[in-house]
């Protein structure tokens, strides 16, 4: 049997659930086409284990080279410069037919952020590379570490990368 392939697959994530056999058709299609995502949406797709401690695995979908002004999914932005790149978190759902209609939150760092001692750090392409998953603080929940594609200090212009660790748990807030 030849699988049916959708013509418009941009801005979509296809999930295949493990069972007695892997289907040729996705169990769930997460459609981001109604959201402001860029051409690099889905460049990063990663299962990350159970971030929020509810017993089901979660996943990240990256849009690492798009600009975002913020919003309820994003962390605070102290300078108002927005975010350049984000990893969208979808918490797992033990329901027999989960939909994952919308991300639960965004992991991101401000494009422009103040640093101690004066100046700012400019971050571009957050989550493009350097994503690691593990229990980094020993609390038995999954944590995520990620970094921007490029990061530099305004005072020196050097590439002072800033690895970010997001600790998991029932109060996971990115």
Description:
The structure is a single chain. The protein starts with 11 loop residues before the first strand and ends in an 8-residue tail after the last strand. It has 174 residues and is an all-beta fold. The chain contains no helices and 10 strands. A 4-stranded antiparallel sheet has the order 3-4-5-6, with no helix packed on it. Strand 8 (120-134) and strand 9 (143-153) form a beta hairpin.
Biggest pleated sheet:
4 strands, antiparallel
Summed up, the helix count is 0
Which class best fits the helix and strand makeup?
A: mainly beta
Cα-based radius of gyration, to the nearest Å: 17 Å
Average predicted local confidence, pLDDT: 81
**Biggest sheet: strand arrangement:** 3-4-5-6
- The share of residues in extended strands comes to 35-45%
Task: Annotate the secondary structure layout.
Elements: E1 12-15, E2 28-31, E3 41-49, E4 58-68, E5 83-90, E6 105-107, E7 112-114, E8 120-134, E9 143-153, E10 164-166
Antiparallel strand pairs: 1-2, 3-4, 4-5, 5-6, 7-8, 8-9, 9-10
């Amino acid at each position: 049997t030849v699988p049916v392939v959708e013509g418009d697959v941009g801005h979509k994530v296809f999930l295949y659930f493990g069972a007695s056999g892997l289907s040729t058709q996705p169990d769930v299609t997460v459609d981001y086409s109604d959201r402001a995502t860029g051409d690099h949406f889905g460049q990063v797709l990663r299962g990350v284990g159970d971030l929020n401690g509810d017993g089901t695995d979660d996943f990240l979908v990256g849009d690492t080279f798009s600009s975002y002004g913020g919003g309820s999914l994003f962390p605070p932005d102290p300078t108002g410069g927005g975010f350049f790149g984000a990893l969208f978190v979808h918490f797992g759902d033990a329901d027999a037919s989960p939909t994952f209609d919308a991300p639960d939150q965004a992991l991101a760092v401000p494009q422009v952020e103040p640093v101690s001692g004066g100046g700012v750090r400019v971050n571009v392409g957050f989550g493009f590379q350097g994503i690691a998953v593990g229990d980094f603080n020993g609390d038995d929940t999954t944590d995520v570490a990620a970094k921007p594609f490029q990061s530099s200090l305004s005072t020196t212009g050097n590439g002072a990368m800033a690895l970010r660790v997001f600790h998991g748990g029932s109060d996971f807030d990115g």
